[in-house]
Amino acid sequence: MMIVPIILCGGSGTRLWPRSRVEKPKPFLPLVDAMTLFEATVSRCSIFSDNAGLSIVTGAAHVEHIEMLLPKDERTSIVVEPAARNTAAAIALAANRLPSDAIMLVCPSDHHIGRPEVFVETVYRAAALAAEGWLVSFGIAPDTPETGFGYLKRGEAIGTAGYRTQEFVEKPDLDRAKAFLTDGSYLWNGGIFAFRAGDFLQELELYSPDMARDVRAAVKNGREDGKYFHPEPTTFSAMESISVDYAVMEKTARAALVPVDMGWSDIGNWHALYSALDHDDQGNAVRGPANAEMMDCRNVLIDSDGPSVSVIGLENVIIVVDGNDILVTAANGVQNVGRLSGARNQ
Q1: Residues in CB range of 75: below 8 A, 6 or more apart
Q2: Which of 165, 254, 292, 337 supports an S-S bond with 286, CB 3.0-4.6 Å?
Q3: Is 245 in contact with 150 (CB distance < 8 Å)?
Q4: What would the pLDDT profile of 183-209 be if each residue is shown by its tens digit?
Q5: Which of 166, 142, 141 is nearest to 154 (CA)?
Q6: CA-to-CA distance for 37 and 113, rounded, in angstroms?
Q7: pLDDT value at residue 11
Q8: DSSP one-letter string for 80-140
């Protein structure tokens, strides 16, 4: 099987403000360890790129960061989107430039996977299903009643590799999320996929024909510039912005999933980052080079790029210092960080 990693690199990560900013967003930050999230994604995907290299789909604003961090490999291609049009269009761009039987391993560039060896094993299971014509989602084993993710409901088994996807569920409220966790057949939708390029384009043509036509035209009339490919901008920029779930995955009769417990996190907000870090006996965590002192604190994250931070008697609080910007939030308020004026105008 030819497995081609497709790394989607976009977004600004406003919920991780003030550390994540437009000029240097989340994928290009070393948040969990010394590697940036982008570098870690490339590293764990490179094992599958021996035959065909890998493909990165990104916007012009991110090209400079990618160039600095990407290992030299003549087979790597970088598709530069003229406008951000969400994941369906990004995946379709890559699919139109591959052989129809190539298995696409679609991965966001800004997720953390704590057990990459489990990820590798799961990719091969997903690829086996994809080779049979299934469009496969990675279903992340949930360990909390998370309201910030969509869910996949596991249906009937498909051999030993995976299951039909019985249902896609949008982000639930807390009561539903608790019920999903108790039920045991619901998994987080991690936004990682495997399918043959031709199968994906066939389903896109069936369920989102206008997008299929426009992406095909944007690729046909695009231009190569070394390892860079630039789609024709007018056609591409006029397309609807829609996720791959809405455009294809929730509609296709060929949706499947592989369950996996691989220490996954989307690092989508400060509490998600806190959860991915090591903690002391009181649940406290510290990031950055600055001195941090905590007294009578529990479940506190301090992230400072310079000033010393001292905290007394707090619980479930996150404190971030980035240059002249300081964020202090309760752990249950992290979803609102992106609504702050500083984050919106970064």
Answers
A1: 49, 52, 53, 54
A2: 292
A3: yes
A4: 999 999 999 999 999 999 999 999 999
A5: 166
A6: 10
A7: 77
A8: EESS--HHHHHHHHHHTTS-TTPEEEEEESS-EES-HHHHHHHHHHHHHHHTTT-EEEEEE
For β-strands 223-225 and 151-158, DSSP reports them as unpaired
pLDDT of residue 346 exceeding 80: no
Rounded distance, CA 168 to CA 153, Å?
6
> What's the rounded Cα separation, in Å, for the pair 258 and 281?
35
Q: How far apart are CA 55 and CA 58, in angstroms?
A: 10
Average pLDDT taken over every residue of the chain: 94
For tokens 């999230």, what's the residue? 37
Residues 239-251 have pLDDT tens digits of: 999 999 999 999 9
Edge-to-edge order in the sheet of strand 315-322: 285-287, 298-304, 315-322, 325-330
Indicate the pTM of the whole model: 0.94
86: left (phi over 0), alpha (psi -120 to 50) or beta: left
- Is the Cβ–Cβ distance between 248 and 200 less than 8 Å? yes
Averaged pLDDT, 57-78: 89
The answer to whether the CB of 26 falls within 8 A of the CB of 268 is no
Contact (CB, 8 A) for 92 and 219: no
Tell me: pLDDT of 68 over 70. yes
Mean of pLDDT values over 121-130: 97
Cβ neighbors of 341 (< 8 A, separation 6 or more) are none
Separate counts of helices (H) and strands (E) for the chain: 11, 19
pLDDT of residue 300: 98
Amino acid (1-letter code) at residue 144: T
3-state secondary structure of 199: helix
Residue 70 near residue 192 (C-beta atoms within 8 A): no
What percent of the chain is predicted at pLDDT more than 90?
88
